[in-house]
Design goal:
This protein has 257 residues and is of the alpha/beta class. The chain is built from 10 helices and 8 strands. It has an 8-stranded parallel beta sheet with strand order 1-2-3-4-5-6-7-8. The protein is globular and about 45 Å long. The N and C termini lie close together (11 Å). It has a single domain, classed as TIM Barrel (Alpha-Beta Barrel). Helix 3 (72-84) runs parallel beside helix 4.
Length: 257
């Protein structure tokens, strides 16, 4: 089963073309889409999309780059929303140490609070970990959750193994399409296949062939082919394995079957 485990279908870039984009992805063989929210304002959009399309699965959370506009009320609202709405994960949550003008203390406060919310609802987490892998791992050990996905993984093999040990799958996507992305391509080749899931992060994280255009979920089929080529296995094996992995990371997806 071909699953896009991380796509922001509610983004304004898809306005006016959203149905076509979805249908093109389905025609390319994509069976399910996991759509994480990034802030309180996006909760409603994500949930509405999921109510309109049975193959869209929502996750609710406050992204680390949005915590500057968030408040404690938003965390309370997140908990209330999760009581009412069936979600596959708490996400997108985490830390971003790449962007320098974001308050890291505020990021950490919201991250740990949302890990506790994930614990409360026994939900996995979809993690944003850019340039913050070790700090995220430390918090996961302090506040263990029901696994999940480390989105857009770009760390070391040692860090990859640490996330896997904590029950997480690692998200790979468009970065694999760049021949110069040697570390990511090496990890995609050498990591156990059972630790990998596919994602687009559309409309962002454009692949090598899509520079200057918005990223689209149909690209996930090409990512599967790239991963198969890197590993020297069949595309069918990659599709089967990454689908199994996605449902193991986000058990709520199995209820859709």
């Amino acid at each position: 089963m071909l699953i896009d485990t991380h796509i922001h279908l509610d983004a304004a870039e898809f306005d006016g073309i959203r149905v076509k984009v979805l249908n093109d992805a389905r025609a390319a063989g994509v069976n399910a889409f996991v759509v994480p929210a990034v802030d309180r304002e996006s909760f409603g959009r994500v949930v509405t999309l999921a109510s309109e399309h049975p193959d869209i699965h929502p996750a609710l959370g406050i992204h680390p780059l949005y915590v500057g506009q968030a408040s404690a009320d938003d965390l309370e609202y997140l908990g209330q929303a999760l009581e009412r709405i069936k979600c596959v994960a708490v996400g997108e949550i985490g830390l971003d140490h790449f962007v320098e003008d974001v308050d890291r203390e505020q990021q950490l406060k919201f991250f740990t609070a949302q890990l506790r919310i994930a614990q409360r609802f026994q939900l996995p987490a979809i993690l944003h970990i850019r340039k913050a892998q070790d700090t995220v791992l430390k918090q996961l050990r302090l506040h263990p959750v029901r696994g999940g996905i480390a989105h857009a993984f770009n760390g070391s093999r040692q860090q990859a193994d640490a996330f896997i040990t904590l029950g997480f799958k690692l998200g790979f996507g468009g970065a694999m399409s760049f021949e110069g992305s040697q570390r990511i391509r090496r990890l995609a080749t050498e990591l156990p296949l059972e630790s990998i899931v596919l994602e687009t992060d559309a409309p962002d994280m454009r692949p090598a062939w899509g520079q200057g255009q918005i990223n689209i979920p149909a690209n996930i089929a090409r990512y599967a082919r790239i991963l198969a080529e890197l590993r020297g296995v069949s595309v069918d094996e990659v599709i089967r394995a990454t689908g199994v992995n996605a449902r193991a990371a986000l058990p709520g997806l199995m209820e859709w079957d």
